[in-house]
Amino acid sequence: MDMRIPLTRTVDLGVAKLLPDVDRPRAWLLTVDGAPQSYVDLDDPSHLEFEYVRRLAHVLDQLPGDPLDLLHLGGGAMTLARYAARARPGVRQTVVEADAGLSALVAEELPLPAGCGVDVTVADAREAVGRTAAASVDLLVADVFSGARVPGSLTTLPWVRAAARVLRPDGVYAANLADAAPFSFLGSQLATFATEFDQLAVIAEPSVLRGRRYGNAVLLASRRELPLAGLARSTAADAFPARVVHGDALRALMRGAESVREDEAPARSPEPPSGAFTVG
Q1: Where is 189: in which H helix or E strand?
Q2: How far apart are CA 49 and CA 82, in angstroms?
Q3: Nearest Cα to 32, choosing from 50, 49, 12?
Q4: Is residue 215 in some structural domain?
Q5: Which helix (H) or strand (E) segment is 38 a member of?
């Protein structure tokens, strides 16, 4: 019998809850203020419950070269970092989490495996990137939310320049975003990243792209060609298939959008519909 009980703790940025998955003996859902943040299976880091995390894992799987250097902005329960440590032996990873209380909770209740090569630091995402050496990162993952919205500080042209500085010439930026038709926020982000990166793509479920619902979209940006064919195969084979949008279809998403040029006018992602990202 599973004797685990939910755990609730007030952290720096809200109220965190760890909820056991009754179907998996060492799996947990982490929420903050009712919004799902992470799902992690301590026995099986390759089990990725959230669709958008699987999209990010598909990106990681397609990157050539080992060992890789990964920088994760937004830690949560560090689901992707755990996956990367298992899937890409020798990978070097830094996880940046702004919430010290949340980081402590995860370290206590969901500890990382010993010797997994993951360095965890408590810091603001922009400040951490500013301290990162130039051209030192192969994959920069931005999965940062304030509540259920992407903070405006990670949407502007100065932010894009900062991210571009730390990536290697063939490095990839991958951001978990959220939007709905008419995709004003997503379009503005594509236009902003296009100022620094030649290659762009978006991974999202067809129902989101068709404007039927609000949902996650993974934005990819690089100065070198993205592994689009491999990504298309892996995302199409997912239990919840997604599309890789690029070329003319991507330009249609960007049509009429302007880059977010000033920190004084950040563009937060839209407020999700009631119940979109909440757990009772």
Answers
A1: helix 184-193
A2: 13
A3: 12
A4: yes
A5: strand 35-41
Query: What stretches of 107-183 adopt beta strand conformation (E)?
Result: 118-122, 137-142, 167-179
Pairing relation of β-strands 215-222 and 199-204?
antiparallel
For residue 66 the two structure tokens come to 């080992």
pLDDT tens sequence for the chain (280 residues): 568 899 999 999 999 999 999 999 999 999 999 989 999 999 999 999 999 999 999 999 999 988 999 999 999 999 999 999 999 999 999 999 999 999 999 999 999 999 999 999 999 999 999 999 999 999 999 999 877 788 889 999 999 999 999 999 999 999 999 999 999 999 999 999 999 999 999 999 999 999 999 999 999 999 999 999 999 999 999 999 999 999 999 999 999 999 998 765 556 677 777 655 555 4
CA 269 to chain centre: 14
Report the domain count for the chain. Answer: 1
CATH number assigned to the domain comprising residue 146: 3.40.50.150
Residue 261 lies in a domain: no
Q: What are the phi and psi torsion angles at 9 (to 5°)?
A: -145, 135
Look at residue 115 and tell me if it is in a domain. Answer: yes
Per the confidence metrics, is the pTM higher than 0.90? yes
In order, the DSSP letters of 195-256 are TT-SEEEEEE-HHHHTTSS-EEEEEEEESS---HHHHHHHHHTSSS--EEE-HHHHHHHHTT
Q: Reduced to 3 states, what is the DSSP secondary structure of residue 20? A: strand
